[in-house]
Design goal:
This protein has one domain. About 6% of the residues have low confidence. The chain is globular, with a radius of gyration of 27 Å. With 341 residues, it is mainly alpha-helical. It has 12 helices and no strands. Helices cover 63% and strands 0% of the residues.
Length: 341
């Protein structure tokens, strides 16, 4: 029997793969890393949750907020003592508990964020680890986003830990889940804006101490600068013999006004709104707005009669400030390595 030899398999000619052009505008530059695979974010998160520091932070955070909740509840009970409690009164108490705890969280965030982010880049310079970061495959923007995301992640942990305290006010009544979502979202947005500015400061300075001091100065101006502007406006008009009130838009970058204005107004209350700092801010906005807050003969707020939507201005200006800060920080981090030595 003759041996059968198989036919050779014809291999088609394969053209070489086309080279993908570099559209980044810079040859040899990496396309960066995703936020999930960001090594800076991973390292920062590990460092923040190690040791007893995170336990101390959580303990102090919850202790202070619990004290605010208890004191507000005791004050509400004392005010309503001897008064028949109905659904409206319970709703008012629940709203006050929520807004006072939210106010305490905002004050603590304004105090904590500069400490969490002021040393983001200056710490790398002092440890002489910024140059190795610049020599990795990460873009300068990846370094900045990793640092900022780590601080926001820790801040989100603190907010989540405080949710049971906000749940107490929800059980009492007077607010909805949407109100809680609005308040928490504005808190995190405030932390994002302030954190981005503090990271920018850290990228421009060389010492953590100076960056921390300047960061707390920015936080102070962020919280109270608009009030000084309103006082200066009123003094200027008084000197010139005018009686014009300052515009409510001066509060456009004030976190207390932004968070307070995003929450709904409280109806059927003898002061026109909730007895809380946020309620006072809403009344101030309505008073300074073009359409001053008015009430009918029964003390009910006239529908649609309110001041300008300060929280919209706050969001727009905050987004612009965050984008500019991140871009400027990335530009500072992209400095050639020789200048960092």
């Amino acid at each position: 029997m003759s041996e059968i030899t198989p036919d050779p398999i014809a291999v088609p000619d394969v053209e070489p793969a086309a080279t993908v052009p570099d559209t980044s505008g810079r040859s040899g530059v990496s396309a960066g890393v995703s936020i999930r695979n960001n090594p800076v974010l991973r390292r920062e998160l590990i460092e923040r949750v190690q040791g007893a520091k995170v336990v101390v932070f959580l303990t102090l955070w919850l202790a202070l907020l619990t004290i605010i909740l208890v004191l507000t509840y005791q004050a509400s009970v004392a005010i309503n003592q001897g008064v028949q409690i109905d659904v409206t009164s319970l709703g008012r108490v629940g709203r006050q508990l929520f807004e006072w705890v939210l106010f305490g969280m905002l004050v603590l965030i304004l105090f904590l964020v500069p400490g969490l982010t002021a040393g983001a880049i200056t710490g790398e310079r002092e440890r002489q680890t910024l140059v190795p970061l610049q020599m990795t495959m990460m873009r300068p923007r990846d370094i900045i986003i990793g640092k900022l995301s780590a601080a926001l992640s820790f801040l989100m942990l603190l907010v989540i830990a405080a949710l049971p305290l906000l749940g107490v006010s929800y059980l009492v009544g007077g607010l909805s889940i949407l109100d809680i979502v609005r308040g928490i979202s504005m808190l995190l947005f405030t932390g994002l804006v302030l954190g981005a500015v503090c990271v920018l400061i850290s990228s421009r300075l060389r010492r953590t101490t100076a960056a921390t001091v300047l960061g707390y100065g920015v936080s102070f101006v962020f919280a109270f600068g608009s009030f000084f502007m309103m006082i200066a406006w009123a003094i200027t008009f008084s000197v010139n013999g005018g009686d014009g009130e300052p515009p409510a838009e001066l509060l456009a970058l004030n976190p207390f006004a932004g968070v307070g204005d995003v929450l709904p107004r409280q109806e059927n209350f003898f002061t026109g709104d909730t007895f809380s700092p946020f309620g006072g801010m809403r009344s101030l906005i309505d008073e300074l707005g073009n359409n001053n807050a008015r009430f009918d003969n029964n003390g009910n707020r006239i529908n649609g009669d309110r001041g300008p939507y300060v929280w919209v201005y706050y969001l727009v200006l905050g987004v612009v400030l965050t984008v500019v800060s991140i871009r400027s920080s990335a530009k500072a981090v992209s400095t050639p390595a020789d200048s960092e030595r």
